[in-house]
Amino acid sequence: MRRILMVVATVLAIAVVPLGRPAVASPAAAASLVEVTDFGANPTNLRMYLYVPDRLAARPPVMVASHYCGGSGPAFHNGRRYASLADRYGYIVIYPSVTRSSKCWDVASPQALRRGGGSDPVGIMSMVGYVKQRYPVDPTRIFAVGESSGAMMTNVLLGLYPDVIAAGASIAGVPFACFATANGSEWNADCAQGRITKTPQQWGDLVRGAYPGYTGPRPRMQIWHGTNDDVLRYPNFGEQVKQWTNVHGLGQRPVFTDSPKAGYTRTRYGGTGGAAPVEAISLQGRGHGLPDEAAETIRFFGLDATPPTNVNPSVR
Fold it and tell me: What InterPro entries does the entry give (predicted)?
């Protein structure tokens, strides 16, 4: 596990401006990253960082951005363009942050893989609830994005809370429940090495079983992976495609294929346009650390259409 963390940290390390522990966000400083405490149920002692731009959309969307293994909310904030794009388009960004020693998300325990079961997903949903209570957000436009361990958490959030999360983007991740373990370990080597394969139906059943009885709409999913990923190997890309196409009742044959950039192969399932139920981008020759394609994720979420109009209110 230590070797894996060193690899991930080396590949994904992002320059971070040192931050002290800010005060509770009351009131929030406009256009700055603020830590929020006492945001609700938080069984695994996560930390919550919040970015609210100077100007908000009329009913601002919300994005949950989950960091990679060994990272933090502030590091992810500083290293990716989600906040600068929020300045342009007026959405709010939540950066949850792990405090356990590994700085990896719990995507393996039975508690984390069951709706309301406890662990990290419960804390993240408390953060979402906190923001919904304090800002006039659009509850139908809550999104999740993550890299590596954070991409795994994105899969988990979409599986557990399809009634909350409208769409997600998994950047170098694995399918929902692929990392499940029964011995308390955070790491599943078989999944990481791409040795766990299932039928689309089996993968889909794992998602459906996480929230029994749910019959509502399912979140759209955007999936990114490098063909030379040696941390979470490339077969996990195809297994995620299997899972989320099945969850949406779709077949495995894409209805649209193009190459938006050299070395990129993009496939869409269930629709040819930018709001397809599943969009998958394979990056030829890339390893675990992928380029910053935040703008493409913002496009997939549909956050790039409406300019902000309202001045950022203070957090009560």
Answer: AB_hydrolase_fold, Esterase_phb, Plant_Biomass_Hydrol_Est
